[in-house]
Amino acid sequence: MNNQTQYNIGLVIFPEMTQLDITGPHQVFAFIPNAHIHFLWKTLDPVRSKDGMTILPTTTFDACPPLDILCVPGGPGQVAMMQDTEMLEFLQLQGKTAKYITSVCTGSLILAAAGLLQGYRAACHWLFLEQLAMLGVEVGTERVIIDRNRITGGGVTAGIDFGLVLASKLCGENTAKMIQLLLQYDPAPPFDTGSPEKAGEVLVHLVKKLGAQLLEASLAQTKQVASQLSLNIKEDSLH
Hints:
By secondary structure, this protein is α/β, with parallel strands linked by helices. The chain has one domain (7-237): Rossmann fold (3-Layer(aba) Sandwich).
């Protein structure tokens, strides 16, 4: 695992995020040799995730160095982040030079709102795939999707798989395999209901009902962002 290349890895955090979207990849990245990991937010104040875990930012947007890897999580807070000018401008700035632009779960909606996924194929939580498509992104249902320098993971737990895929890109397959073994990442879930195809209509209906309020709020924001993106494209074509 001796690799002399240094990497600046930026893990964006925000209020009401799903913590596993970022802590899963972080656990993988922590084993990458010479990785300098930044937890990024507007300020250095504690950030509370959707389920109550508090994460301390280590670097502000303004103080962030150029990143090799930019990673955005999802969670209910993504609705606000899709219209947050400071967040979107930060992603656009770092996206100009980052070697890899990445996300987990509905973090891909935030990247799309920043204009960083149009023309690419990407993953998202299964509940939000139609909304991602509304933003001009080609969607897929794979657990991890690689399209040039965009690497996106599906819902929540896919962040660990995503982290291992990126570790392989940065350090080689053998190092990624060693990290997987160190983490004893050998999933054997007690139930085979981890995707809508396997779960069946009854469970899918119950989950959609449970998330109805978030889905509705996200859809409204997605429509607004899609309209703005379309307007920006029309304005650009006139210049």
